[in-house]
Amino acid sequence: MRNCILITMALFCGVAAAQNRAIQFETGTWKEILAKAKKENKLIMMDAYTTWCGPCKWMAKNVFTNDTVADFYNSSYVNAKFDMESGEGIELAKTYGVQAYPTFLFIDGSGKLVHRVCGSDSPQNFIQKGKDALKPELTLLWLEEKFNTSPGDAAIVAALFTALSDGCAPVGERVDKYFSHVKPEEFSSRFNWNMLYRHITSSASPAFVYLLKHQDEFGKKYTADSVSRKIQNVYERSFAKIARSKDKVALDAMEKEIRANMAGDADGIIWKGQIAYYSAVGDWTSFAAVTVKYVEKYAMENPSQLNSFAWKFYESVSDKAMLEHAARWAKKSVELDSKYYNNDTHASILYKLGRKADARAAALKALELGKEAGEDVKETENLLKKIEELK
Prior knowledge:
By secondary structure, this protein is an alpha+beta fold.
């Protein structure tokens, strides 16, 4: 009987152990991990994560601990994980262009990026992505090499751009390189329209310039609305980029171009760009004036935007007439969707305006909602103390 019990316990422990396997991540330096991969002639699978990333935590809890996932990755890869915002991870994020989390990088022993994917996934799909990275003809590296030798090959372009998207990596100038090998009269084909619509982001792109000159032709084939949306999206991105560069001359020139080429309402794009510019250069008077125009026309039914602009006024604007606009926006945001954050914003602006009774009521409401939602309400408690000191 005693022997039977021992055998049963041994079998139970064996089963328990078999059901608790997990991906084994290396603990050494990046240099040491590269050396191990080279020695074992394996690729590295790097989990590029951050401590605040919810999907990263989900993968660690639900996928990395799956037996089948663990068996596959432990036998096929040297596995590593780095926080992209601390230690060696900061430089690794720059080296491999990691901007979304989680991103999974497949790297050879010399440090060359072979493949990448991003986002959380099921155990089955995560295994399949690992298998794909072991097949050279399915990797991003192979597709990049093919594209460099045949940049006009539509099949290669489609596969490469899909792989870049799956890896949360920008297509960048590759799309212009592709269109440089396409005859202009072929720009409006279904495939090329899809490439243009999905991947062109600069107003300086030759394909975009062609689209502007042939809006009617594209509109008849793919609807005027879709063409208008694409033009608006590109101009929005381009104008925002110029705004961040603080180049007022370029900003003014782009405004003229937008007004000349936009078939629809151009004010929203231009005002948003100007808001970004005036914020970047610290011209809060001009910032406030343009923001009022934008919010009153475009954001009065959007509680999140109303709150964001109101908070920015609280932080940066001193003019009381302008702060009254922000107080009205914050109140409207609360009326549309009363939450801890926008009640706190409303209280903050009312405090800045010296309206003690109203500020106190808003702060108390924010505290009530914050505590109900389990929020950290210390800042609001401090605000309430300052409100009580108002005369």
